[in-house]
Amino acid sequence: MLDDFFARAALAGVGVALAAGPLGSFVVWRRMAYFGDATSHAAILGVALALGFSSSVFLGTLVAALGMALLVNMLSHKGHSMDTALGVLAHSALALGLVAISFIQGARVDLSAYLFGDILAVSRLDLLVIWSGALVVTGLLYWRWSALLTATLNRDLAQASGINPRREELVLTLALALVVAVAIKVVGALLIAALLIIPAAAARGFARTPEHMAIGAIIFGAASALAGLGMSLWLDTPAGPSIVAAAAAFFATSLGRRKA
Amino acid sequence: MSLISAKDVTVCYDAAPVLSHVNFSIESGEIVTIVGPNGSGKSTLLRTLLGVLTPSKGTVTPKPGLSVGYVPQRLSVDTSMPITVSRFLSLPHRKFVADQSHALERVGVQGLETRQMVDLSGGQFQRVLLARALLAKPDILILDEPTQGLDQPGVAAFYRLIEDVRNETGCAVLLVSHDLHVVMSASDRVICLNGHICCEGAPTVVSETPEYRALFGLGTQGALALYQHAHDHVHDGDCDHHDHAHAHEDHANA
Predict the structure, then answer these.
(1) This prediction's pTM
(2) B84 contacts on A by Cβ (under 8 Å)
(3) Residue among B241, B232, B191 nearest B23 (CA)
(4) Does the CB of A153 have a partner CB in chain B at under 8 Å?
């Protein structure tokens, strides 16, 4: 089955959806949409670094995303206006990455693969990386679930229950960097945040508990991946954007369901 | 030992002291009300006692293994998060359904389990927060302006509920109120805070006097009491609320 490029692509998409669903729910609850943008845009800088030092692209994006996520996390505790700070950081990281890549000598770099993803070219090794990353993130969130939820509702409430809210934020930061690093191959740096937010937002209308929403987000994410891939195959559209377009369609249909 | 004790605590925001040289302790079963004007550091003191803020000077020592039931001043559940009352009560630790419904019943909002938190009214929300705090079987209940937005009979009813809970469970109660003069009559001590502890004492139970009746009506059944401030110093500038202690006598006579 893994010999078929389409099957590999489908598995990659479902793997990313598995991690992006619950993590994306937290991104929505904590209003961290821009946080996701900044982290994923930093991945382009990571690609440039990886190519420059000829190390693995996965490692480069992971390090850059983690660095950006920690930087943003730190800034948010210093009382900066997050909206502007994140806007500056997100787009600066993207621009710096694009500039840096232009300096890379030798083999021409196919930038669009990193900006928009290259899910149809996913190798067996990529699949291994994606699923390992996805399982680590899902496991991490499952393990910390109750503490993360409490800290998301109210930091002081968490503290009074013996939960350190900063540690929980660090867990989310770490998970976000990991998801960005594994998802860049699937939807590309520009659309990772969409894959986090849209399925979770679509699941909101159907959910009564946080757990329902997280599971719903996984289902919508996986369905979007499959629908997007199908569309890409039949209509010859770019795969990554097609996946996000499918997710947007799911979101639109969920709007009627939303009852506060 | 005391449940929580603070020794010579100073807390600064950006180098400006919000609290200076505060000494505080609360014993088990005690009800302590902290009053003070806006910006007097009441919430800062609570958050320092909870361990959210670290004092710049001094120490805060909770009793080892202390279980705290905390009712925050505001808790806004983001509309993007679906969460039922039942799920909320189980944060961070799972609670049995029977215990949940018992806790809700105790605070007077039985049957709300399947409602969404965002759909609750202000009074219901406050009581659900209290139910959650009680489910932790606390040694101490810490409430930050729990009666905000309630009318006077509502405040009196809430204070009676807290008093009953204390009598049943024996937990200590630490309560913050922005009302400088009308406090919970069951308070063993009232502490007036304005950056530092201005004065401390027991509330005057005046519920028998006709003036009290005129002020509060009959509906409050003695849950409220007056607190007579006895400051031995005068504040310079705008934090002067010294003369209020006399002002309410005029109100009572009017």
Answers:
(1) 0.84
(2) 208-209
(3) B191
(4) yes
